[in-house]
Amino acid sequence: MRVLVLGGTTEARQLYTLLERHAARFDTTVSLAGVTRAPVLPALAVRIGGFGGADGLRDWLLAHRIDAVVDATHPFATQISGNAVRACAAAHVPLLRVERPGWAPTPDDRWTLVPDMQAAARALGAKPRRVLLTVGRKDLLPFAGAGAHDWLLRSVDHPDASLLPPGCRVLLARGPFAEAEEEVLLRRERIDVIVTKNSGGSATRAKLAAARRLGVAVIMVARPPVACAHTVADTLAAMAWLDGLHAHGAATLREV
Question: What is the model's pTM?
Fold first, then answer.
């Protein structure tokens, strides 16, 4: 059974491990966007780069006779997820999205919930604050004119310098992060507020626990919606879905 995994997340890497163990049943190709400069690669066939939009992905699925697609991309990777929905519908290929549950505030959290990055930048206000940005390299532009704050960006890879807010310092680091380490960082940098996406998962959740303990404010950007008919919350459920397709025969399902 030929499977395409749109990957790059913790859940995707967990799924790779399961699929590696079942290579006799699943002929898997992993697709990575190529955004991260040193990605963790599985022992599976890997392609890096875009498909050329939804039409390009549809053509690739048909050309490679793909039987099923698992979208295990980041909750904020709306472009590829939207392309996957349209391409799979056009090619009549079953599609599953793995979407980890989002984070939710507790009564002890100091969260400001905002719908997008522009709103997050406005929520910082005019008074200078010490800001920890953990929004990724591609969402920095709204903060360039957001005020005379003291900026610290944490990123896996170094961003384009032209996108950084004035005077922004860059901390290169890859999760998962421990709560004690996060607390040390917040204390050392005297952070007033964290700006982050509601990515969910455990790899970067520790900063929220550290912020709660220290009373640090959090500006939380909500997830954009993705219209996928079939969604599961974890890797085991995704593997069960693939097992079900394999058991019933992907070719039969594609004819329905």
Answer: 0.85
Q: How many helices (H) and strands (E) does the chain have?
A: 8, 12
173-211 in b/e form (b: 16+ CB < 10 A) is eebebeeeebbebbeeeebbbbbbbbbbbeebbbbbbbb
Per-residue pLDDT of the chain (256 residues; tens, 9 = 90+): 999 999 988 899 999 999 999 989 999 999 998 766 656 678 899 999 999 999 999 999 999 999 999 999 999 999 999 999 999 999 999 999 999 999 999 999 999 999 999 999 999 999 999 999 999 888 899 998 888 999 999 998 888 888 899 999 999 998 889 999 999 999 999 999 999 999 998 878 999 999 999 999 999 999 998 788 899 999 999 999 999 999 987 555 455 4
What residue ranges define each of the domains in the chain, with the CATH number in brackets? 2-101+225-253 (3.40.50.720), 111-221 (3.40.50)
The torsion angle over the Cα atoms of residues 59, 60, 62 and 66, rounded to 10 degrees, is: -150
Q: Where are the alpha helices (DSSP H) in 107-158?
A: 117-123
Sign, CA dihedral 46-48-54-59, equals: negative
